[in-house]
Batch of 4 targets.
Target 1
Amino acid sequence: MTNLKSHSFSLFLLPVRRNRIIILQKMMKKIEQLVAEKLLKIKAVKLQPANPFTWASGWKSPIYCDNRKTLSYPSIRNFIKLELAHVISKQYEEANAIAGVATAAIAQGALVADMLCLPFVYVRSAPKDHGLENLIEGELKPGCKVVVIEDLISTGGSSLKAVEAIRNFGCEVIGMVAVFSHGFPIAEQAFQKANVPLTTLSNYNAVIEVALKTNYIDESEIEVLQEWRKDPANWDPLA
């Protein structure tokens, strides 16, 4: 009789869990759209399919992202801080330290750590060439469970170098939370291989959807924008 009741209760919980997942997915979708809207509004993200940007890597790109601009707009800065902190408090309750990836994620990482009352450090791209030659700046204790804050995920290379540095220090990286991702397959594969859960507040698809809705771009440009992301390293805007 007890087993039957337990089974019935489990069956009752199934639709409850499904509904909770659906609600969370809808909430995340809404956040993705809101963040995309705010980034486009202050030109932290720009789309120029007809006049591509050239990245430092030499790649041609129809999108340029500079999330550091959000720091100059108090309401948007605060919104992003709250959403990053919300993700961490919900998904990584066991976190006892926050690390920002230098340099773009230092400010936002410090704001989030302050809000969550957690220690903060930041990870350099290379050790200092003077003094103690630190790679990690701040006080990080071995054994800490760390959430890494990142500004932008492209290929994931620099972000995962920061993860490696923290792991080499004897800490556990339990996840990474970023403001924006281009959603490249190469990045998704790299994060899976490194066993690093990644959550982003917004992404390339959300930006395109919002840009289309607000007439920032038109339907004729969608194909170009989608083609670029399939193979950004070899994309030819003139092809």
Target 2
Amino acid sequence: MTAPLRALVAGLALVGGLAAAQDDGDAEKRLKGLANELRCLVCQNQTIGDSNAPLANDLKREIRTMIATGKSDADIRDYMVARYGDFVLYRPPVTAATAFLWVGPFLIAVAALAVLAYRTRARRRAEDDALPEEDVRRARDLIDGRSP
């Protein structure tokens, strides 16, 4: 092979290697992005990106394979939801089935504040309705048979 031809082949190999490295970098970014959106089904309080559980590693491997086959992020999310349900999403969508999960904590907080306000008002009313000390003394005297 002549020197210019060797240089051309080496240059093409270098450009091809850089393009492949760029594709791998993009695939890894997509994998990390998706892994941070999906819940580890074993740990349940971690994303699969944060988890070292064997199932999380299997799911990351599955996502990597799907990315390599050209699936979009939405396709991969839809596949995971179809297979594992909305629970696999770390931030599940607001639907009729999940509405209470999103609204429930606020309802509980409002109910707790309402109970606290009711009890505080009831205690104040009870204190306001209490007889003055002079009236209590006169009532005791009447009960005991003493004249006021």
Target 3
Amino acid sequence: MRVNSTMTRTATVILVSLVMMAAALPVGAVEPVIPPCPLAGGIILDFPDEQLRSDRSLADAQSDLVSVVLLPGRYQVTLASYDHVAEGGDQPNEQWFLYGLDSAGATTFSTPPIADIPGNVNSMIQTMPVFFLDSRTASVGAQHAFHPDKTSTNSVYPWCVKLVRETPASQLQGDFNGDGKDDVASFYSSDGTWWVTQSTGTGFSTTLWADYYTAAGWGPQVVGDFNGDGKDDIANFHDSNGTWWVSSSTGSGFTTRRWATLSRAKGWGPQLVGDFNGDGKDDIANFHDSDGTWQVSRSTGTAFATSLWADFYTTKGWDPQLVGDFDGDGKDDIANFHDSNGTWWVSRSTGTAFATSLWADFSTTKGWDPQLIGDFNGDGKDDIANLHSGGRLWVSRSTGTSFSTTLWGTVPVGWGRQRLGDYDGDGKDDLAGFYGADGTWRVARSTGTGFTTKVWADFSTTSGWNPQMAGDFTGDGKDDIANYHSSGTWWVSRSTGASFSTTRWTNTRP
């Protein structure tokens, strides 16, 4: 996408004068011939023949405005500059910055100035620090960074600009500051940074929490309280060398250290978080289908100690594999489904190993999706809700030693995105499903023996929502849903106990 500057300016309350004035060159100077923009990709903004002067009026220090729509989000920006070297020698302070305006003329962003162009070059390309745009931008412009400066006749040409709106590589929900309200952590692989969007209860505030030396190649990245301090942390796996690095929350940032090096670097999947020995610190169970083994990385609070906990005779074909406390003893277990015969096998934790046995045998082996863990009858033992392709919800209720599976309800076909949560705060888990066809959230509330399903929210905008996360973002004991739209805005569907009240949550930054 390429946009050129126009000769039409829009009056604003910030700019003193928006009348384009001819910028005269010094006597004997030659008007530079500026080559085509060398930048490519993203949104390219051209500023042809836009000489910025610091020693004259504001109009001489500014470029024409470029009309372009920039949606809220995180941007990488690259600025290309051209210097009129024919003016003679190295001039000081040949610097400029990019700024944006909304439709009313208010400033939406401004970049730091570029570095001073050296005297022995006539062009420079500089990647600027990333920035977050929190409101829609209608136009951008360039301005000399040292206006007004009457002491020297320096000038610079803002050649062109590249803007790239970034998408997070990971977005994870957790209570990272331990205040009882869930937050969202976003990882950007372009520069290896974690930004945490903290809930205030009525809005979000986003700050930088970590900056990794190694930016790319992380996966999976999982949330858990690995040191048991009541604040969620993030464990990051890198399969280049099979290492787990834990970003421990301080409440306002992450401190990242290596916690484990596994015996094999690649081939792990899934890698699941749970408190498998019941000590109050989350651990990670790593499954390898080359030999069907579960290796548990048990947290000591400052590191992982990894050992073999189970060895399956059948090594492949297990999907899904889900964590829950199925016997209610305070230690997490793993339920493993195999659709070759429709069986659930539960690997119960003894605290030092898994004991695996058959818990359920379905007559219908395939077509189950999703299969979600929750305590649907509120008895302290986790169960499994199994949705079949025909829209029927079957719950495999735990007896402590097996599953008893019965039909709990039906939902309309097309239930796209399912999110588990206790939306009415009664201690029994429910299911929420988003229907993209009509933009509705429908909640299947658990009665303890079945589901009662009704519409809880109706969005006027039906598409563009991703991710949609369940969590208690207000801290009132009832789960809500945070919906991120591609336009760059967060909308939180706050539970009233019987429906969702959806409002935009303003995202502030320091």
Target 4
Amino acid sequence: MSLILAATLSTLAMILIVAVRYLMVSGAFAFATRLRHPGLYHGLDKQIVREIRWSLMSAAIYGVPAGVVAWGWRNQGWTLIYERPGDYPLWYLPLSIFLYLFAHDTWFYWTHRWMHQPRWFRLAHAVHHASRPPTAWAAMAFHPIEALTGAIVIPLLVFIVPIHVAALGFVLLVMTVMGVTNHMGWEIFPAFMWRGPLGAWLITASHHQRHHEEYRGNYGLYFRFWDRLCGTDRGVGRFAPRKAPGGGCGPAGEPDGGEPGRLAPGHGR
């Protein structure tokens, strides 16, 4: 088999993996939303179809560099991914995970701020913010330009920072789960993760939803470090109620008014 054909097959396989992973994870959390907060996505069917369409397009873009790099790692010895735990000290395993998450968060923060420049927002990022409110299906709903900025960061890191293959899998799991849960319109994590001392530095839906509501600030992905350092942290909030089918308040918030996906003001740190 020629090198080009092998790399192409690896890329196609990775595109399929990314697409199926998106459908499974977003679908699972959308189902959890239906059980936990019935009616939360009521009336959003057309938006969800659009989110899925853009997300599958993004999956194809994410799969290309990942597939090429995966083939190069297995067949050409590219990358600094290692499989034998003894190649690096045991303490390096959690450190490598943190380095990847922090590097990814740094890249995301600054590219995200760049995407909020008026020209680039209109050209690309508006696709993601067209989800009002975002749902569990919106995690990868990106314009191709934005998808490309996100698709290259992990494939680049594996050439720079050594990481065990299992640790890399964990990083990808965190990336997938946080991308979905940050957009699904309710807080799945316990309060200590977003309201206590730990929440002062971690990002969950309570932090990211405010970005979707206010269109400025809260640009980070996993950590609040860059938002705090650069003065763009808008704090966290609580979710105001959704309108349930037939009138009345849905179970996602308290009965104090508001719109779907809206964080009630005045509750940030």
